[in-house]
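Morning F.,

Quick status update on the modeling queue. The single chain you submitted on Monday has been processed. Sequence for confirmation:
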Amino acid sequence: MPGQDGDYFRDEQVATWGLDQFWGLPEYPDTPYYRTFETAVDATAHLYEFVVPMVPPTWNTRDRVEEYVELMGGGTVPTAVAVSTLDVCEPAVGQPADHYRHWGLTHFLLDGHHKLEAAATAGRPVRLLSLLALAEGLAESEDYGRLPALRTQLRSARVTGT
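Structure tokens below.
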């Protein structure tokens, strides 16, 4: 949830970019989202992966979410579908305490809202069929080529730059 423990926009983004200069607050994503994976890209960059539901989780039918929780408890791994972008960004000026590049792999959930909430609730895996929009993010072609290998790395703690 935005503003709570584990919120990228409250924690990692503020460590690198600081608070919004006008409001003096962290950026606000305007929606709940799921943090699914993170790993080091190298000593100066870190990959963060997010799934953004296209409707608020409060719109999900409780019975349907519970049905998926039960199925997942029995070993089912459901599949959700998303269109995705990759943004690679870093501070342009100054020397923040935590200066490094942020790779943001964001999946905009098209189908599977109940499945994702159930997976988050039960701490179970879900497959994500992701259609990566290559020309829509702030990344170079070689960055896209590195994603498959990065996604096979172990999940890691946040890395600070050198």
